[in-house]
Every structure is written in structure tokens, then in C-alpha cells.
Write a structure and sequence with these properties.
The complex is a heterodimer. By secondary structure, chain A is α/β, with parallel strands linked by helices. Helices cover 34% and strands 23% of the residues of chain A. Chain A is built from ten helices and ten strands. In chain A, β4 and β5 (83-84) form a beta hairpin. In chain A, α4 (113-123) crosses α5 and α4 runs parallel beside α6. The two termini of chain A are 35 Å apart. By secondary structure, chain B is mainly alpha-helical. Chain B contains 13 helices and two strands; from the N terminus they run αααααβααααβαααα. A two-stranded antiparallel sheet of chain B has the order 1-2. Chain B is globular, with a radius of gyration of 21 Å. Classes of the chains: A alpha/beta, B mainly alpha. The complex binds adenosine-5'-diphosphate and magnesium ion. Adenosine-5'-diphosphate is lined by residues 31, 34, 36, 54, 56-62 of chain A. Residues 60-61, 103 of chain A line the site of magnesium ion.
Amino acid sequence: MSVIAIPSPTTNLSSVSSGNALELRGVTKLFGALAAISDITMTVRSGERRAVLGSNGAGKTTLFNCVTGDFFPTSGTIRLFGEDVSRFPAYERIRRGLRRTYQISLLFGGLTVSDNVYLACRGVSRGRFSLFRTRASDPVRTRVEELIAAVNLTEATDTLVSELSYGQQRQLEIALALAGAPRLILFDEPAAGLSPTERRELINILTSLPGHIGYVIIEHDMDVALRVAESVTMMHNGRVFKEGTPEEIENDPEVQALYLGHGDE
Amino acid sequence: MAVIENPDRSADATPRSRSWYEGISTGWWVLAAALLFMPAVANDFVLFQVFGWTFILGMIALSLMFLAGYGGMVSLIQMSVAAMAGYMVAIFGFSGISDLSLGMPWWVYLPLAILIATIFGTLVGALAVRTEGIYTIMITLAIASAFFYFTRQNYSIFNGYTGFNLVVPPELFGVDWRQPMPFYYLTLGCATIAYLAVVYVSRAPFGLVLQGVRDNPRRMAALGYNVVAHRIAAYAFASVIAAVGGILLVWQNAQIAPGTAGIAAVIDILVIAVIGGIGRPIGAFIGAIIYVVLSTFAPDFLLSIGMSGERFNLLIGLGFLAIVFFSPDGILGLWDRWRARRAKRGDPLTGESASGGDAP
Ligand SMILES: Nc1ncnc2c1ncn2[C@@H]1O[C@H](COP(=O)(O)OP(=O)(O)O)[C@@H](O)[C@H]1O
Ligand SMILES: [Mg+2]
């Protein structure tokens, strides 16, 4: 596993980065009458690594969708690195250093691995509208190769994504999220469906991320979650149920009754 | 996802060590030579009417192919954009209607015509990109028919029902560009440039991003792309190609009237693009030559077997139906499947399976 070289945030960001990466205040998302999430208030510090736990349908993915701007919350405010982005389109938030992966891989099946990563790198750099092909000497090419190597897909560089195995597609999802200079990454169940080896590789990638990159990871597997996160948010029925350190959450009787008990089923 | 993909995987991502021309297969060289030396064998009618018209319609269909194939946006405005450029040439340049034509020099009216047509196409795009699928077709068709009725009723600018006659190309370099051979090379040159531009751009960031937007707009937004802006920019790019086609069209006919972009003409561009195959740029020209040959020769053929010459529309309609029914990716799709089947069957002599013919 190569250590991932990710550019540090440039210029004036350092003043903000001592503060909070993400602040949610009273965020609610209704689907018709159903409140997928209601009145979520939470804060993620810059560089913090947070796990979000909760049973299926607890609203974890919906929370991510509201943060990234995949859709707008019904009410509440979202601040990203100190800036109110509640009404910003997704691409504006991404350009501010937010990244995400999708629970169900959302990749370009008809393109190769390197083209997928290329699109991710181009999306957060200049020249998105360029009519001129990218030369082999362009730095973005090197970056694409680095990212592919970082998630161990070098042999699959020219493979069509639709021909990748499930585990490889999950790895590619992560490569896309690492493009550019991420500051906060939302991982939506990246370990789901992975083999034990792939799971170990994933943990390696996450723990070797540079310190200035914070992330929020949705993870069902307590063991994985506790190894990659320093704080935990438990969600239940669209609400924040408990927050604390991994130890606090693990030993909380209410959490055990609600969640860990279910895990034994 | 990605129904329409270039068979050459990732030509962009792999740095090339080979010279650019080594990647071009023999078939293309033969086609290029045949087209270059066509005037040696073809008569004036074939050069001017068959090939000239094919290249022009092919370019306009190519602009639709770019939007539909790479962008997933089926626009019916391309013929109107072409006609807009044609009108602007007549209005800012010269025509038989000297009251309305402003008589500017060619180096003013040509760029101006392309610019105005491009703005027109881009504005329509800005309205259309917020819709999807059938709604894109409907909104662009609605604007196309509005354009048709407007030009027919407006006499102060578009000269209404009659339009403009005697619109001819400027005598650049002492050549009369409406003579069959010069016109053949003029349209061939423009069509070639447009074709190569589309092929090139399809693997440049702009084209790649457009294909990403087609396959998965939500993901593209989550990668930092402004999806709406990209779609509108695609309309702008396509409009330039359609505009050049429209200028050539007005020169070929020496006139322009509302019917140039009437509903039938608007639909014909869609038919041409679909018949040829909307997945690849060359499909536009394949569709165009089929359309031109049918509409040029079918009337005589139908008359000779005792049917009305007007029925050639029926032939084209039936051909369209057959294509949509049997091969949604057009003639090119049929060709691909035939080659795939042949490759699988293997060489009849050695029994080895062929590599499909495009191995380096
Ligand atoms: N696009 C949507 N439309 C309607 N309901 C949705 C949508 N997305 C999620 N939901 C509903 O919101 C609730 C929370 O879903 P989700 O956020 O996916 O949960 P989790 O990721 O925690 O399993 C579920 O009841 C789900 O059915
Ligand atoms: Mg989920």
C-alpha cells in the first residue's frame, strides 16, 4: 500500500481549517410525508474522522445526500468549512473540498478505470470545458496514475469499469473521492460486500490518509468503524440518537439494546 | 449506461508513442482517396447535387449526432439553427432582395451569421437542457415550428413567405464556388473539418465530460461538474457546425425560404441521424447519403414502375421504421453486428477466430 500523496489545501484555507469542516443545524429532509432525517444537528471538526452508525433506513445516506447537494434538505442549514452552502449546487460544494462515495457504486461503466479517475481529477481542476485533448505530459495524468495505484487498480487501468469485480468497483469509488485536494470525504458503506482482504486494504487506505483530511464513514461493521474513526454518531429513525467516542458508544446500554443486540440476530 | 461508446477504448488516456496516422485503418485511406478523386469520374450533377447535398445534410445531422450521441439530448432545433445562419448570410450579405440585404463584405457577414446562429442555438439549448428525453424533443420541436412560422410571417427582416433568392458565395480567390467541382471540394472540406473536430473533441475533456453527463449527470455533479453549463456548451458547439452547414445549404440552393427549416426538414435531420446511427459521427454522413440518394433517384424509379414520385417519402419513412425496429443504432449498428458475427465465426480457411480487423 503506497502512502497517498494528496495536495494540502492551499492558501487562505488554513485559517478555516482550524475550525469545523461541517456544521449541520436542524437539517430535515421529507419525502412526501416521510421524514427521512429530522432535525439533525451535528458538527465535524476539520480533520476529524467520524463513523455514522444506524440500522437500514435510519437516514444515513439521506444525510450524505443533503450534505453533498445531491438534493436539498427541506429545512435546516449546512455549513461547510465555515461557509453556508445550504443552497449551493453539488458541484460548488465539491469544488470546496467535499467528496463522497456512493453506497451503490455510481461509476461510468462504459469508460475505463483511468477515464473514470480522469473525470474525477478534471472535475476539480481547470480545463473542464477544454476542446483540446489532454497531453501525456499533463500533470493530471500523473495524478490519475497515482490515484489508481493508491487503490491497487494499476493492472486494471485500461479495463472497462463494467468489467471490474464488485470489490474493484468499490475501490474505484474511493479513488474518485480522493481526486484533487479533498478536505472532507463522506464514505457511504465502503466496506459493504468486501472480502476480508479487501476490507483490510480499505482500512489501510483510510488510516493512511493525510491528517488534514477528515471523513465521515457509514459503516455497519462495528469492528471496522471503531478502527477507522475517533468519534461515532448513532442514528435512529432519522434522528441523532447518540454521539461519543467509540468506547462510549460501544458501552452505552441504550445503544447495545438498540443496535448491538440486533447485530447478533 | 453507455450504449454509445467509441470502440477505441481510452484513446485519450493512453499516451501515444505511435504516429497519429498509424492508427487510421486502410478503409479510411481508401475513402479519403475516393472522395478526393471523385471529380475525375463523377458528373456535375452527382458532384453538386448528390455529394454536395450529402455533405451539407451530413454536417447538420452531425450536429444532432453530437448532442444526441455524446450528450443524450435529442434536439430538433439543428435545422433551424442552420437556416438561421443561411438567413443571416442573405440579410447581412447579398441577395436578390436588395431592399432587405445589407450588402456587407463576406468577412463581416460570414462570422456574423455563424455567431448569431450559434447564439440562437445556445439560447434554445439553455431552455431545453432543463428537460429530459421526450420533453427535449417536444420543446425543441416547438421552437423550431415557432421559427418556421415567424420567418413566414415576418416581412421586415425575413421577407416572409418568399424568403431570399440569388444568395451566392463570394468569389474568393477568383473561384466561382457554385460551380460543381469547387462546390464539391468546399462542402467536402467543411464536412471533413466538422467530422474531425467532433471526433477529436469527443476525446478531449469537453467531449468526455459530456459523455459522463449523458451517462450519469448526478455523479458528474458530485465530481465537481456544472452539468447544466456543460449541456448548454454542447448546444453552442453543435450550433457552430449546423451554422456552417446552413450557410453551405443556402449557397447550394441560391435561396432560402421558411420551408428550408419547415417541420418536414426538421424531422428529416432526425431521420438522417437515426438511419446512419447516432452513436458515431460517421453515421450522420451515412444517413445523409442514403437520404440524398433516395430522394434524388427514388422519384424517377417510382414513376417508372407507375407510382407517384412523391412516394419517396414513404420509402424513407419505411426505411426509418425498419431501422428503429431492427437496429436502434442505425446502419452502423448493423455493420458492427455483422463484423462481430464474422469475427466469432472465424476464418473459413484456417478456422482461427479473426481479430475483428482492427488490430494494430
Ligand atoms: N429518494 C428517495 N425517495 C423517497 N424516499 C427515500 C429516498 N431516499 C431515501 N428514502 C427513504 O428515506 C429513509 C432513509 O433512507 P436512507 O437515508 O437511504 O437510509 P440508510 O442509508 O440509513 O439505510 C428510508 O425510509 C428510505 O426509504
Ligand atoms: Mg444507506
